[in-house]
UniProtKB/TrEMBL annotation:
This is Enterochelin esterase-like enzyme. InterPro entries: AB_hydrolase_fold (IPR029058), Esterase-like (IPR000801), Mycobacterial_A85_antigen (IPR050583). It comes from the Bacteria. Gene3D superfamilies: alpha/beta hydrolase.
Length: 245
């Protein structure tokens, strides 16, 4: 039986206008923590695949439990929707829409949220989160805009060759903090680009990031490339970045 306190929550829907995206707008869903007060300011978790994080990841429920029961500092969650048919083109660094999506996120979405909500406006209080290609696009956002983003939560990141090459070309990454998990049963996962060993992709990426002096939390555990695995990991990942009050 779910505690009723966890179900009483505020989720606002917004639409961000855009000059960079062909459809000229993108939908968001925004979780406001219990006791949200515009006089205060809050860390923000920005989730790729926003609809999935809320519906399959149940991140709003997890956040509410952590704030009410574990004493975590209240935080805002922004879920950024994506058209699944265009997802690879936006999230993969060699996708046709990738450059425009990155610019939209950093130059339009962030100011939109920070003008309307009591969001902290420094990099250490903005967390980028994503699963699979959502994890890799989160890292590429940080690499492109280190003045905005220094923290990344990567759930089974899809770090294909092009992503690994970009990381290998990066300069010092000692400013970056990344939380990486991958499931041991993800060693032959079929994607729209072929079958990949996600364990190997993540191991290689971890080594590249550590070589560049990034701060990396890395864990492999039993799990498949699906929300049944990632949902159970969200509380630990959030606690890694959000402090107890």
């Amino acid at each position: 039986m779910t505690d009723e306190r966890y179900l009483k929550r505020t989720i606002v829907k917004e639409t961000v206008p855009s000059r960079y995206l062909p459809e000229q707008a993108r939908n968001l869903r925004i979780f406001l923590p219990p006791g949200y007060n515009e006089v205060l300011s809050y860390p923000v978790v920005y989730c790729q695949d926003g609809e999935d994080f809320f519906n399959f990841g149940r991140i709003a429920t997890t956040a509410t439990k952590l704030i009410l029961d574990e004493g975590l500092e209240p935080f805002i969650i922004v879920g950024v929707d994506v058209d699944k048919k265009l997802r690879t083109e936006e999230y993969a660094p060699d996708g046709e829409r990738h450059a425009n999506y990155i610019r939209f996120f950093a130059e339009e979405l962030i100011p939109f949220v920070e003008e309307r909500y009591s969001a902290r406006q420094n990099p250490e209080h903005r967390l980028l989160a994503g699963d699979s290609l959502g994890g890799s696009v989160s890292l590429h956002l940080a690499l492109a805009y280190p003045q905005l983003f220094t923290r990344v939560m990567s759930l089974s990141g899809a770090y294909y060759g092009v992503s690994q090459h970009i990381i290998s070309e990066a300069a010092d990454l000692s400013w970056l903090s990344i939380y990486m998990i991958v499931g041991l049963q993800e060693d032959a996962y079929e994607t729209d680009r072929g079958v990949f060993d996600f364990v190997a992709l993540n191991r290689n990426t971890r080594a590249l990031l550590e070589h560049k002096q990034a701060s990396v939390f890395y864990e492999e555990k039993d799990g498949k490339h699906q929300w049944g695995f990632w949902q159970k990991e969200l509380d630990k990942a959030l606690c890694y970045f959000i402090e107890v009050e």
